[in-house]
Every structure is written in C-alpha cells, then in structure tokens.
Amino acid sequence: MSHINEAFKNGKALIAFLTTGTPSIEDTVRYVLDMEKAGATLIELGVPFSDPIADGPVIMEADVKALKNGIHLPQVMETVKEIRKHTAIPIVLLTYYNPVFRYPADRFFQEAKEIGIDGVIIPDLPGEEQQEIRPLADENGVDIIQMVAPTSEDRIRSNVKNATGFVYVVSSMGVTGMRGSIQTDLKDIIRVIKETTDTPVAIGFGIHTPKQAKEMAALADGVITGSGVVDIINKEGNKADQDLMNYIGGLKKAIG
C-alpha cells in the first residue's frame, strides 16, 4: 500500500521535485535527505527524458545533463534503492510513458513495489488511456497520480473520480517554470475536485516563493515546488546543499 497519505498527515504537504542524476546519483540521494531535513514531506524524482512535453527550460537543462550522465529509468530505480537505505519519505516518480512501456510496465510496477516507490506521475498518459497499467499499479499498491489542468468541470470530475495518492493541480497552462504570479481560478477547480474525491490536492507549476507557497497552501492540501529546486542544483552542482535547505525551509515556514 502507498505511503503518500503520510505526507499530508501533519499539516500541509510540501512536495519537492528534482531530476535524478543531476549532477550525479550520489548528489541526488544527498539532496533528497537535505530537503527532507528542511521540511519536505514527499519527494518527486524526475526520470530524465529526451522529449518532454510539460517541462520548461530549467528542468530540460537538468534532463540533458542527466542523460549525458547515462541516467535512464533503470538508474532511477537504483537511486530509489539507495535513498531507501536512509529514509522512508514517500517517493513518487515523474516519468513519461515511453520509459515505463519499454521497461516493460509489469516489471516496472512490480519493482516499484519492491523498492518502495509510492506513486507515479505520467503527464502524457491521460486517465482514459491508463486502462493497461492501472490494474498493474493497483495490484502492486502504487498510486497513479492524476494531473488536472484548468479545463471543463466535467473533465475535471472525470479525471479525479478514481484518484489515489494525491491530485496534482497544474496552476497554469503551459510548461513548468518559475512564474511571477498565478492567475488561474484555482479555488473553483479545487472546489470541483473536493466535491468529487477525498484524495488530497496539491498545487504545482510555478510555485517558487514563500508568498506563492502560502497562497497556494491556503487553497489546497499541499504545494509542489520543482523548477526552484532544479534551478539551484543546475547553478550550484554538487555544492547546493545549504541553499536547497534554506529554500525548502523558507517554503515550509510559509505554509505553516
């Protein structure tokens, strides 16, 4: 059974994303532990991919570096094994479907259960196309995290009616990245979700300041930060520990 609910037990969840293998696997393991110490309650590990559809320039830069380091899904699985020697923090992989399909999917979900992966986010696999993998995920206790973009009320309800783990609300249309402001009517989107499911809701895409984190936490059960984390790692390489902890600590303080 997934342990994602642990991230939402004691107040608002703080979910931190980083690209696996940038600048190295050893650094990824260390940075996960740093961010947990600073207040992160769930970790998203990005699987490097050559043709992302939802990633902005900051995360794409990290993907390129990781791919040059030979980091693909098998190496990400090994990274999770190493992390699990040190912490039980909930871990979700963010991956496009092709690496899972080629792994293949049945082996992926079985190994995910064995090594302690709690969930998976697959941006290019909408709900109606998950029939092949959902039984595998359910059988192995791995949550498929539903992403919800600003769209029609009927579409939102359809996407989240069977949601498990948490619902990932995309704050703005477009790709990931640090934004100066978030204009989407998130309050109404979250109202629709809450009327449809009891699964916790977290908001991502564009959140990188304490002010934004506080505003989003007032609407949802958790906030997700990605590009802010990856930007620090891109700039500082294997010396990002203190700045990462300061950054995550600032967001954690803001959301309470």
Search tags:
single chain, 256 residues, alpha/beta, 8-stranded parallel beta barrel, 8 strands, 44% helix, 14% strand, globular
Describe the model:
With 256 residues, the protein is α/β, with parallel strands linked by helices. Helices cover 44% and strands 14% of the residues. The protein has an 8-stranded parallel barrel with strand order 1-2-3-4-5-6-7-8, surrounded by 7 helices. Helix 1 packs across helix 3 and helix 1 packs parallel to helix 11. The protein is globular, with a radius of gyration of 17 Å. About 4% of the residues have low confidence.
* N- to C-terminal distance: 28 Å
Order of adjacent strands in the largest pleated sheet: 1-2-3-4-5-6-7-8
**Shape, principal axes of CA atoms:** globular
Mean pLDDT: 93
Total of DSSP H or I helical runs spanning 4+ residues? 11
* Rg calculated over all Cα atoms: 17 Å
- Hey, roughly how much beta strand do the residues contain? 5-15%
Structural class: alpha/beta
